[in-house]
């Protein structure tokens, strides 16, 4: 990492820290993610996924390196921070803003799926905003190839975000394009309603609600938005909304 200056911390993950950085003798700013070597398999999966994806709504990957105790990823720097931070500052966004976010996310996921990847862990902290307010999808460490996708292992389940997991995943179902769409619906709902569609404090109750309960209606949104959320949060993955409607749902 001798080629880079490290500045302030931009954020923390479960076992990672992200710094603002700048390549020495340039004005090229970047985000530099530090991860312990124990997470090497996940980091390499993230590197493989992001190297394979070239899309305006996918975070750009620049390079990675290994030091004695850590792995370092050099990534695109997004001045707007992550969606989780934005929602803490302003929990309820306008339907117009949510529409734009939804289209950006749907296009990013569609690109990943078209390139043979299921994202597997969509959540607000993995979604970045650039200076124009466009969304960038990052954090591909739990992504899987569609051809070999498997149910979550115990270790993966501990890293995943239950509030955004589709009901079939709690019945040992595999991750799929449909489970990514469910997570998309959860995020759009949260942006418009101020909280995820299912948010019980008890893990057991949360799973029960995801499996069997209907989310409360979102206030002050159009019928088209309400219909889109209902179709994204269809508990049956076989009848959940398709990509064409998800990208052009309004």
Describe the structure.
It is a single chain. By secondary structure, the chain is of the alpha+beta class. The protein has two domains: 72 residues, 2-Layer Sandwich (Phosphorylase Kinase, domain 1); 165 residues, Transferase(Phosphotransferase) domain 1 (Transferase(Phosphotransferase), domain 1, Orthogonal Bundle). It is built from eight helices and nine strands. The strands form three sheets. A five-stranded antiparallel beta sheet has the order 1-2-3-5-4, with helices on one face. Helix 5 packs antiparallel against helix 7. The longest helix is centred in the middle third of the chain and has 20 residues. The model has no long low-confidence stretch (mean pLDDT 90).
List the helices and strands and how they pair.
Elements (H helix, E strand, L loop, with lengths): L3 E9 L4 E7 L5 E8 L3 H13 L8 E6 L3 E6 L7 H7 L5 H20 L2 E2 L8 E3 L5 E3 L6 E2 L8 H6 L17 H17 L9 H10 L10 H10 L10 H5 L3
Antiparallel strand pairs: 1-2, 2-3, 3-5, 4-5, 6-9, 7-8
Helix pairs in contact: 3-5, 5-7
Protein name: G11143 protein
Organism: Coccomyxa viridis
InterPro entries: Kinase-like_dom_sf, Prot_kinase_dom, RUK
């Amino acid at each position: 990492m001798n080629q880079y200056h490290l500045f302030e911390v931009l954020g923390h993950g479960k076992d990672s820290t992200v710094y603002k950085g700048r390549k020495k003798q340039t004005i090229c700013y970047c985000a530099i993610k530090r991860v312990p070597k124990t997470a090497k398999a996940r980091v390499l999966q993230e590197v493989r996924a992001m190297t394979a994806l070239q899309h305006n709504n996918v975070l750009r990957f620049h390079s990675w390196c290994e030091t004695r105790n850590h792995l370092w990823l050099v990534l695109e720097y997004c001045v707007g921070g992550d969606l989780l931070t934005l929602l803490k500052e302003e929990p309820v966004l306008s339907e117009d803003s949510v529409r734009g976010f939804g289209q950006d996310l749907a296009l990013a996921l569609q690109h990943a799926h078209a390139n043979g990847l299921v994202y597997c862990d969509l959540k607000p902290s993995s979604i970045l905003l650039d200076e124009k307010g466009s969304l960038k999808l990052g954090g591909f460490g739990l992504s899987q190839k569609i051809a070999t996708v498997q149910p979550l292992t115990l270790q993966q389940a501990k890293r995943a975000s239950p509030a955004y997991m589709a009901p079939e995943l709690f019945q040992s179902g595999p991750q799929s394009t449909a489970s990514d769409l469910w997570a998309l619906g959860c995020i759009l709902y949260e942006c418009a309603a101020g909280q995820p569609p299912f948010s019980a404090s008890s893990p057991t109750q949360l799973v029960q609600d995801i499996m069997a309960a209907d989310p409360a209606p979102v206030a002050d949104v159009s019928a088209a938005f309400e219909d889109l959320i209902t179709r994204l949060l269809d508990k049956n993955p076989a009848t959940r909304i398709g990509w064409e409607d998800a990208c052009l749902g309004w």
